[in-house]
Write a structure and sequence with these properties.
The chain has 317 residues and is of the alpha+beta class. The chain has helices spanning 2-10, 57-75, 93-109, 159-164, 170-181, 187-192, 207-218, 233-238, 242-251, 267-277, and strands at 19-21, 29-30, 36-46, 78-88, 113-121, 125-135, 150-154, 197-202, 221-225, 258-262, 281-288, 292-296, 310-311, 315-316. The structure holds adenosine-5'-diphosphate (ADP) and magnesium ion.
């Protein structure tokens, strides 16, 4: 049974010239590239935590690929290969086909080949390992933010959190749910930030939580302007209470946008890049020497945010 599932998976994978031996042996054989470093990352998705048992399987597959691709995007890496660890309660062929449509569909869009994995019987859980190329020494790390840098974020914030709360109605509600269930990894943006950004992270746990990681690793602080945080039309329409909207934007996870820091003289190039990619890039604050993160309103007055983000084992903090 396990083998017929693996055959089903193997039949659908995209080929790549640098996959010398793919699914079917004890390990895959992959061809390294001169002058490049390999970025590697793994994310596990569990039923009841990261997705619901009755979510559409293709959405689960899409999200499993997207959250991992997003980590590569945040390093400025070009996706290459992935491995898929699947734990399934039963050999449900229809579920697997739907899952593969979402997973392999998004992987193929980014030229990423599935080269191996493991298939076992157990509570539904999906572990994905991804690997991608970065030019040697040029990865976008969390520890590169410098005092005087401006902070930027791609796209809009808070949509996925509003989708999880089932906010809104009609088209706006559908948009927010799609942002939650089918996030878009910012792969093209990540690769274009080499030479422009000093540090980057993807917003998976919430803006303030993820910014906190950059600040801690870089040994700096920041001020964020609450009123300039980008919000989608759907979020504005569905979450009318500005205080609630801000909580979603600052603390809601799962948006998978890129948060990055860049020196102020890069701002014309970043605005041009936003136009070229058709993806909004918004300046939301600046890096400072004073440790910690300060949040201010349009008048520069400090604002207290109670909920900072999501932590596994602790919940919302
Ligand atoms: P082994 O027992 O040597 O680990 P398996 O029977 O688990 O081998 O796997 C056989 C082949 O199928 C291996 O090449 C493995 O990488 C691949 N494989 C197993 N499960 C998956 C999966 N879910 N996705 C992709 N490849 C898989
Ligand atoms: Mg195995």
């Amino acid at each position: 049974m396990e083998f017929s599932l693996i055959d089903r998976i193997a039949a659908r994978v995209t080929a790549r010239a640098d996959v010398l031996l793919g699914i079917g042996d004890d390990a895959a054989l992959l061809q390294p590239r001169a002058g490049m470093q390999l970025a590697a990352s793994c994310d596990v998705l569990n039923v009841g935590v990261h997705f619901a048992a009755d979510d559409p399987p293709s959405a689960i597959g899409h999200k499993a690929a997207a959250v991992n691709l997003s980590d590569l995007a945040a390093m400025g890496a070009e996706p290459a290969w992935c491995l898929l660890g699947l734990s399934l309660p039963e050999a449900d062929i229809d579920w697997l086909d739907g899952f593969l449509e979402g997973f392999l569909g998004l992987a193929a869009q980014h030229g990423m080949a599935l080269v191996g994995g493991d298939t076992t019987c157990g509570p539904c859980s999906i572990a994905v390992t991804v690997q991608g190329w970065v030019p040697a020494g040029r990865a976008l790390r969390r520890d590169g933010a410098r005092v005087g840098d401006e902070l930027w974020v791609s796209g809009t914030l808070g949509d996925a959190a509003a989708g999880l709360a089932r906010a809104g109605a009609g088209g706006a509600a559908a948009f927010l749910r799609a942002r939650l269930q089918r996030p878009t990894p910012r792969i093209a943006l990540g690769q274009r930030l080499h030479g422009l950004a000093h540090a980057a992270i993807d917003v998976s746990d919430g803006l303030l939580a993820d910014l906190g990681h950059v600040l801690a690793r870089s040994g700096v602080g920041a001020t964020i302007e609450l009123d300039v945080l980008p919000a989608s039309e759907a979020l504005r329409e569905s979450v009318r209470d500005p205080a609630q909207r801000r909580i979603f934007q600052c603390s809601g996870g799962d948006d998978y946008e890129l948060l990055f820091s860049a020196s102020p003289e890069r701002s014309p190039a970043l605005n041009a890049l936003a136009d070229e990619l058709g993806l909004p890039l918004t300046r939301i604050g600046r890096i400072e020497s004073v440790p910690g993160c300060r949040i201010v309103d349009a008048a520069g007055q400090p604002v207290q945010m109670l909920q900072r983000g999501w932590q596994h084992f602790a919940g919302a903090v």
